Amino acid sequence: MIIEPAKRTLSVKEYYFSIKNKEIARINAERAAKGLDPIINLGIGSPDGSPSPEAVEALAACAHRPGVHGYQSYVGIPELRHAIAAWYERWYGVQLDLASEIQPLMGSKEGILLTSLTFLNKGDKVLVPNPGYPTYTSSTNMCEAEVVKYDLVEANGWYPDFDQLESMDLSGVKLMWVNYPNMPTGAPARTEIFEKLVAFAKKHKILLINDNPYAFVLNKPQSILTIPGAREVCMEMNSLSKSHNMAGWRVGMLVGSAEVIKEVLKVKSQMDSGMFRGIQEAAVVALNAGPEWYEQLNKEYAKRREVACRIMDKLGCTYDNNAGGLYVWGRVPSGEAVEWSDKLLYEAGVFLTPGFVFGSNGARHLRISLCANVPNLERAYEKIAFLIDNR
More exposed terminus of the chain, fewer Cβ within 10 Å: N or C? Predict the structure, then answer.
């Protein structure tokens, strides 16, 4: 290479699923040459369903219109902002100011980095859950800020231990990431936990951000912004990726304090030139869906969860039957989960995510994604059962 990468890149590695997907592609090529079926990938949470036909038609219709292919507003078309506000009021009971409290995003993953870039200086501290979404850590590292892990453990239902938080050195902490309903554990959002989080953030003058993309998947939709006083210290990110089968469309949102959004927009407006109008119009249609959309979505995911739980049972894993979200999270009976994951991949032809990806507190856990249809999950069960029964 003619020049060296920036030093900040030394703090991050290529995303785990990017590496693993390349490995699986290589294995599949080898298996195809031998006449074997491909790996059944139950790893990443990329919904395999389609958006509503009406949303797809809205995209197509817009794309055929003249005058829609130029740059768009950084703050989204008025129709999208109105749809987000109506969606939040209808499902979460939260009223948002159309002009100042909504910032559309190209996916909430973008928002995590944007928010980090907006508020973090070198040496600032960020509270990050362990286990938790890896992007919280990588975004913090790329801003040359300091990651301060706080524990989520099974014995506490995968919720923060507030006594432990209070005992930590919180000097210099500016941001705190929370994620309820939780990924990877499936722990649901709970009002009493949100109340404690808001009180904690107020006490220590921390900007707290709830990352909330799983609210509609086998969960009851809840927002941290319903807690009295939350808007003083809390923001929320949301996404259409999981709730509307639009992961590849990259539609998300940051909602809450107008002051925070104004600052984030300074950074965002330097990094893109607006979301394609057709995607915005499709998102409007998706957000206006009635309860039948979510009922059908969850009916399918409930069927898939039943098979995923059978896989966990066959492996001898323990898991929470009341957890929600897009995954089943189970504790392996012995050893490290990565050993189980590798064995299943190389010997059974099934990939399950090892929990160390999400932090040290996940090292004994496997995660099964529900983003595979029932027949594929059944085939995965059969392959795993054959391996277990014949070892």
Answer: N
| Contact by Cβ (8 Å): 144, 174 | no
CATH code of the domain covering residue 114 = 3.40.640.10
- Cα 246-247-248 angle, rounded to 5 deg: 95
Amino acid symbol at 276: F
pLDDT of residue 318: 97
Q: Which of 303, 328, 326, 327 is nearest to 318 (CA)?
A: 328
Q: Contact at 8 Å (CB) between 224 and 210?
A: yes
DSSP 51-90: PPHHHHHHHHHHHTSTT-SS---TT--HHHHHHHHHHHHH
Q: Compute the distance between CA of residue 254 and CA of residue 230 in angstroms, rounded to an integer.
A: 15
Q: Is residue 201 predicted with pLDDT exceeding 90?
A: yes
Containing structural domain, residue 175: 53-287
pLDDT at residue 36, rounded to an integer = 87
Let me know: does 277 contact 62? Beta carbons within 8 Å: yes
Residues 96 and 214 in one domain: yes
Residue 238 host element (H or E): strand 234-239
Of 255, 237, 292, 293, give the one whose Cα is nearest residue 86.
255
Same domain for 228 and 347? no
Indicate the residue among 255, 287, 319 that finishes a domain. 287
Query: Strand pairing of 146-151 and 125-130?
Result: parallel
Task: Give the pLDDT mean for 220-226.
Answer: 97
- 334-362 burial, b at 16+ Cβ within 10 Å, e below that, comes to eeebbebbeebbeebbbbbbbbbbbbebb
Residues 345 and 372 in one domain: yes
Question: Residue 76, by phi and psi: left (phi above 0), alpha (psi -120 to 50) or beta?
Answer: left
CB burial of residue 14 (10 Å; 0-12, 13-18, 19+): exposed
**Of 257, 287, 317, which residue constitutes the final position of a domain?**
287
Q: Round to whole Å and give the CA distance between 223 and 391.
A: 47
pTM value is: 0.94
pLDDT tens digits, one per residue of 270-287: 999 899 999 999 999 999
Which pLDDT value is given to residue 15?
81
Tabulate helix, strand, coil % of the chain (nearest 5): 45, 15, 40
Same structural domain, 323 and 180 = no
Instruction: Tell me the C-alpha to C-alpha distance, in Å, between residue 144 and each of 6, 13, 44, 132, 172.
Output: 12, 15, 28, 19, 14
Considering its fold, how many domains does the chain have in total? 2
Distance CA 329, CA 359 (A): 14
